[in-house]
Amino acid sequence: MTAQPGADNRPVVVLADDEPDVLGAVAPFLERSGLRVITAPDGKLALDEIRRHKPDVCVLDVLMPGADGREVLRTLRREENWVPVLLLTQVGEAVERAMALEEGADDYLNKPFDPHELVARIRAVLRRTRHDGPPLATAPVLVSTFGLRLDRTSRRVWLGDRELVITPKGVTLLEYLMVHRDELIERQRLLEVLWGFDDAVGTRAVDSRVAELRRVLGEDASNPRWIGTVQGRGYRFVAEVTGAENARP
């Protein structure tokens, strides 16, 4: 099922989900929010629509017949199609979320979700996505100012020529902030990324991990080079970030 005919300048979104209620409710909401929506009830049809319409962003359910959302994502990346992908995952499936990000998803959203939150995520992805090559979500290495480099495959971090000792959750936190540079990330969101909904931890645990990163980086919270605090809300990676192929300069 395709969007209404007629060329316009609205961003094009492919929305794929096998639940008719989701398509029936979410697609009109996205249209009312200023997006042009193309829907598909399964992964294979979603691939056809993506190849045909070259959308600005894709929203894919992880659990679909034919080809699930992660399979569609892997196919797109094999084809060197860097269209931003936001995956809809099941609440509490922390492993699914981690795998989605590792395979090149730009973001994810837990089901059930608030359509307003989906629109906010889509707009954030569109703002930070570059159209001249692979997005940060697929870059093997993330590079920032003052010699900060994160190798996403080996899970190792360097500051200049010195390798930093950071806990696994600290690396995951740094990676997520760098990929979502210049975007306000709420504490609750970071809690989901690091622990999922099943772990009995509070948002103060996120603050502790940020403090850990700042200690290792030698970061001054009052004058940050990399991680800025948004008072009462969360954190923002304030430095520039680019993607690279090699971990060392």
The major β-sheet equals:
5 strands, parallel
Helix and strand content put the structural class at alpha/beta
String of helices and strands:
EHEHEHEHEHEEEEHEHHEEE
Number of strands: 13
Residue share in helix? 25-40%
Count of individual helical segments: 8
Task: Give the strand order of the largest sheet, numbering strands 1, 2, ... along the chain.
Answer: 2-1-3-4-5
- Please tell me how large the radius of gyration is: 18 Å
The span between the termini is 48 Å
How would you sum up this structure, described in words?
There is one protein chain. The chain has 249 residues and is α/β, with parallel strands linked by helices. The chain contains eight helices and 13 strands. It has helices at residues 20-32, 43-53, 69-78, 94-102, 115-128, 168-179, 187-195, 203-217, and strands at 12-16, 36-40, 57-61, 85-90, 107-111, 141-144, 148-151, 156-159, 162-164, 185-186, 227-230, 234-237, 241-244. Strands 2-1-3-4-5 form a five-stranded parallel beta sheet, with helices on both faces. Strands 9-8-7-6-13 form a five-stranded antiparallel beta sheet, covered by helices on one side. A three-stranded antiparallel beta sheet has the order 10-12-11. Mean pLDDT is 84; it is low at 1-6.
Write the layout of secondary structure elements.
Elements: E1 12-16, H1 20-32, E2 36-40, H2 43-53, E3 57-61, H3 69-78, E4 85-90, H4 94-102, E5 107-111, H5 115-128, E6 141-144, E7 148-151, E8 156-159, E9 162-164, H6 168-179, E10 185-186, H7 187-195, H8 203-217, E11 227-230, E12 234-237, E13 241-244
Parallel strand pairs: 1-2, 1-3, 3-4, 4-5
Antiparallel strand pairs: 6-7, 6-13, 7-8, 8-9, 10-12, 11-12
